[in-house]
Every structure is written in C-alpha cells, then in structure tokens.
Amino acid sequence: MSRELLRIEDLHVHFRRRTLKDLMAGTHGDVRAVNGVSLELAQGETLGLVGESGCGKSTLGRAILRLAEPTAGRIVFDGDNLAGMDAHRLLQFRRRAQMIFQDPFASLNPRLTVRETLAEVYRVHAICEPSQIEPQIVRLLDTVGLSGDLLDRRPASLSGGQCQRVGIARALALSPKLLVADEAVSALDTSIQAQILNLIGELQRELQLAMIFISHDLGVVRYLCRRTAVMYLGRIVELGPTEQVFSAPKHPYTQALVAAIPRVDLAGSLPEGLPGEPPSPTRIPAGCAFHPRCTHAMACCRQDPPPSMRQAGSSQVACHLYAAEAAQGDHAGVGGER
Amino acid sequence: MPLLVVDNLSVAFRQRSSDVEVVRGVSFSLEAGRILGIVGESGSGKTVTCRALLRLLPGNRARITNGSVVFEGRDLVTLGERDMRRVRGREIAMIFQNPSSHLDPVMTIGRQIAEAVVYHEGASTRQARLRALELLRQVGIPDPERQLDAYPHQLSGGMRQRAMIAIALSCRPKLLVADEPTTALDVTVQAQILRLLLRLRDETGLAIVVVTHDIGVVAQTCDEVAVMYAGRIVEQGRKTALLSQPLHPYTDGILRSQPESASGTGGLYTIPGQPPSLAALPRGCAFHPRCRYAADICRQEVPALEDVHGHLTACLRWEKLAPGLVADTAR
Fold first, then answer.
1. CA-to-CA distance for A105 and A84, rounded, in angstroms?
2. What pLDDT, in 10s, does the model give residues A84-115?
3. Neighbour tally for A14: CB within 10 Å
4. CA A157 to CA A48: how far, in whole Å?
C-alpha cells in the first residue's frame, strides 16, 4: 500500500435550517448532510462514492476541498489538518487538490475565453512567469485532447464534451495530487461520456492522481474506481474493493442499489427493487437510518445505531446483520473458505 | 390495425436564415399494449418527434413539414385545434422528464388530477376527487388521502413523477408518451417508476412510447426500439434483435461504449467526434464522419431504411456488422 494522502475522521457537515415551525416547537431542522464519515485514501488511488441523491456524497466531496465547512471532525491532507487553515495556506492546499464539476457550462465563466479561463489559474497561483503561461496552456489543451483553435472561444460556442475537457484542463493545470470529480460525466451524452471517462482514466494513471469519483451512475464507478464507498443518509454503509461491492454486496442497501442498475443484457426483467425513498436528512430515522426500507430489519435496527464499520469478506460494512456474525467469531467465515 | 401509425414525419424549426429540419422522415407504428423505445443523444430529434405526435411544438418556431400521424384512423397532423384538444390528455397523454416544471406549483395534486377529469369527462368535483384518490392509489403513492391535498413542493421527485403519471392516466388514455420519464430520478426510484409503467400496460392495455438516452432502460421495458441519429431513425427492430445484433454502427458503438461492457484494461470503446449540427449535416450518411466502417459510398448516398428480416437499418454497409446475415431482399 502506498503512502496515505487523505484521512477523514468522523466528519460531520450540517446545514442550519430553522423554520418558523421549528422555532415554535423548539426543534431544529438542521440538514445533517454528512453525519460521521471516516475514510482514507492513498496516493494514486481511485475511490468511487455512490448513493442516491441527498445522501451527502456531493457535500462530502465539497467538504474535502473545504468548499463546505465541516461542523465537526478532521480532514488531514498530506499531513496537514484542513480545519483552521488561513487563506494563504488554503490557496496552497488547493494547488494540490482540485475539483471537476457536474455541469460543464455552469462551472465555466461564460464571459471568459478558454485561454482566459486557463490563464487565470496560473495567475492566481503565481506559479510561473507570465511569458510561460501561453506554452503551458497549449500543452494543457493537448493533454485533454482539445485543439488549439478553441483557445479564443467562449463556453457558449463549445459543446458539452468540450466544456468538460476545459474543466478537466483547469483542474489539472496545477498538477494536483487529488482530484474530486462530482458527477463529472452525468450531464454528457452516451457517446461523449465514454470519451471523457477514458480521458479521466488515462490521466489518472499517467499522473498518478488520487481521485474521488462521485456519481449516481454505478456502472461508471465500477469501470473507473478501485474501491467504492456507498453512502446512505450522510454515512458510509459499505466500503470495499469495487468488484467486491458490485459482485458480492454485503449491506442490504448496497444489494438493492446494485440490483436496481438497469442492465443492457437481455435477462431483461426489472428487479424487485427497494421500496420507498430515502427519508429527508432533516429527520433521520432512529436506530439504523436504513431500517424503514430494509427487508432484513430486526428489532435492534429500530433502536440501536448500526455498529461502526466491520470487516465482512474483503469489504467493511456498517450493519447489525454482520455485527452478529462478527461476534460469533471469525473462524466460521475462515472455516467456510477452507 | 395498429393504434398509431406515424408515416414519413418531418418537423422543421425556423432559424434566422432558413428552416432546419430536426426530424426527417420518421416512420413507425405501435399496437395497443406495446412499448416502443426511442433512443438517441440530445439533439437527435427524439423529443421533437414525441411532441409532434401531440402537436405540442412551439407554434411560432416549429412546424410539421411533411408526413402523417394516424391515431385510430384519424390524421392528427390535419386535425382542427378543437378536436386536437380533445385528443390530448383524453386519448394520448404525455409525461415529461422534469415533473416539477410540469406541475402547477400553486395547486394541490388532487385538484390538478381532478381538473383533467372535469374538463374531459364533465365529472362533478366530488366524482373527480374520488377518481383522483383512486389514481393516486393506482400509481402507488402512499397515504393517498393526505397526498391529495399536498402541493408539488411537498413531494419528492419520485412522488411528483407518480403524480404526473396519475394526471396522465386520469382520462384513461390509450397511448402514453413518456419523454425521459426517469432521467431525473435515482436508480432505485427509476426501477419503481418503470415497474409502474409496465404494470399499467399489463392492466389496461396502454400503449407507451418511451423516449430515453439510457440503453439500460430500453433493455428492461421496451418491446421495440427505434434509434435516432441527427433527426432520422437509423435502426429499428425488436428489442432482443437490436440489442444482441445491432445492424447500425451507431447503435453498435453506443452499446459497446457502455461502461458495463468494458473488458479488461483496453479502456472504453468510444465513438470519435461528436454529433453533427443539424443545420450543417455532412453529405451522404450523417454518421459517416464518426463511422469506423465508412466507405466512399457513405459520403455520397443517403442510406434508406433497409429491411433485414424485419429489422430495419439505415446503413449501406451493415453486412460489416453481421457478416452472417443475408439481406431480406427476396421479397
């Protein structure tokens, strides 16, 4: 295992939201978007982050870059604690950690040309001589497979795929060590999506980038990431090697999620699927947050929060089902394998 | 006789200088109780085709330039606006990608459903409310008595889509046009909505046209598939035939570029380039600049749909994809 790049310890991100009703009832309506997440990421490693909308995956991604302020917990990047960094140190940190956003049009300034957008990065971070900026930009465009004639275009005259390539070029301009990609291909058409996925994959391998790839599209994550974390209502419920998570999911939620992927193969019948929808992160159910939708829910699931992540096979799971197994001793599992 | 027969339908949009044809010579038919999927990328004309069926195009900018849409013996293209209004909602209903922007935000769900029943069937308010309740139950909205008085913003995305389906079904239409009905939804909710559509088809014999860019959705729901590229249907056939042996290089490319069909380390298969602008289509086959099988003939001739054992393809060199098949030219 190579050196650790990022460590997240018991991270919470809550958004304050107090309506008149809450005030009168004396309750609080805080949105607990991220609710106790711990993670590690090694240099050059790829981690997929999946879950339904509202599960907190985007907020977690933004918190890692301090685009959202953590309420509690620690984020340590390359040995530095992110909390309490002043503006100067934050700027230095962002040279090493960058983000690609979902909407390729909305994440570029519509009034800047491609050249201006990319030059701005070098100017803000002042890492090279002004005379060196132009050759750097040309090299960058070449890296992401865009032709130099596009330098003087504005986003409005670029296609979605081209805009996303500009977004990737901007993220790579500073040779970061960590890339957070939030739904980077979701807004693109199928034929363009494959091009961008290949590009991200190639660059990740060439530049030895660590990457957190956030997506609701499980097929894309399976293709791109070595490890996968599944989030439900602000917590990671399962984390393991991607192939394990997809071919032998442990947590009942992961099982339902994987079963719901529409498959092109012709077995063709629709899966039984998961009943209900995720509850609101303002009112997270007691006990295990997933219990109202879980087909395996037991009495303890309604009362006690699930144990912290336990080993189950080569994955880690936060679920009462596996806690019971672990308590009975590991030899059962080992014996089964022999 | 099929419920719906679309023949050689073309739609043009007015641009600054000239008209741009965004749908060009589209033909298909649909029987009661069948589901047709229309697949394509953005700008391929799939949504415009759907809207043209119901004549829901922006009147000042778009017009149907050619062709017919025959629904139960009547040509909807030439039908008067008053009669057309009776067809919409009552005989053909439509649901859209983004339920929040197609529901009235200041009207309860119950009243929005009842409105259609009162308008089309002349029901009393009381009857209409009972019907609304029954519909909410039918589309699987939990606690329907309470949700009847909910406003759209109080419902989740999946529940809003169910409410829109309830409105669409309120007058028992024979055909449902669903434009990207699950694109805005999570996979788990998507599976619920697709299952709902299949159940409604089985129970009521509803015919459905589903527009989607997601091949997986097609594989799980449709009986027939039409693939659109640059305003034309380039391939059409039974789902199983089309997905297992595509006869158009575009369909083949899309299927192979799915992340789930990636094999080993070679990276994903990609279709090079990007879809052409409809205002400046390449000569010959519109797909030829991106096609791995393109030959000289593809740059000159616009391919017509050819029948290969009941499977239609608009490719001059489809034999390259399926060397074993022999063209059904004997007829």
1. 32
2. 888 999 999 999 999 998 888 888 999 999 99
3. 19
4. 32
Do B105 and B227 fall within a single domain? no
**Residue for token digits 């309830």?**
B166
Q: Does residue B210 sit in the same domain as residue B229?
A: yes
CATH number of B199's domain: 3.40.50.300
CA distance A334 to chain B (A): 30
The answer as to whether B318 is a domain residue is: no
Q: Residue B234 class from Cβ within 10 Å (0-12 exposed, 13-18 middle, 19+ buried)?
A: buried
Q: Do B213 and A190 touch (CB under 8 A)?
A: yes
Domain stop point among B154, B172, B190: B172
- Residue A69 tokens, joined: 């302020």
| Cross-chain CB nearest to A191 (options B188, B189, B254) | B254
pLDDT one-digit tens code per residue, B23-65 = 999 999 999 999 999 999 888 999 999 999 999 998 888 999 9
Half-sphere exposure (Cβ direction) of B181: Cα atoms closer than 13 Å = 33
Is residue B286 assigned to a domain?
A: no
Burial of A112 (0-12, 13-18, 19+ CB in 10 A): middle
CA-wise closest residue to B208 among A94, A207, B140, B218: B218
> In this complex, do B191 and A223 lie within 8 Å of one another by their Cβ atoms?
no
Strands A4-15 and A72-77 turn out to be antiparallel
Cα Rg, chain B, nearest whole Å = 21
Does A191 contact B191 at a Cβ distance shorter than 8 Å? no
- Residue B230: Cβ within 10 Å count: 23
Assess: ipTM above 0.85. no
B267·A218 Cβ contact <8 A: no
The answer, yes or no, to whether residue A327 has pLDDT greater than 60, is no
Question: Which pTM does this prediction carry?
Answer: 0.84
Per the structure, how many domains does chain B have?
Answer: 2
What domains does chain A contain, in order, with CATH numbers? 4-248 (3.40.50.300)
* B253, closest residue in chain A (CA to CA): A191
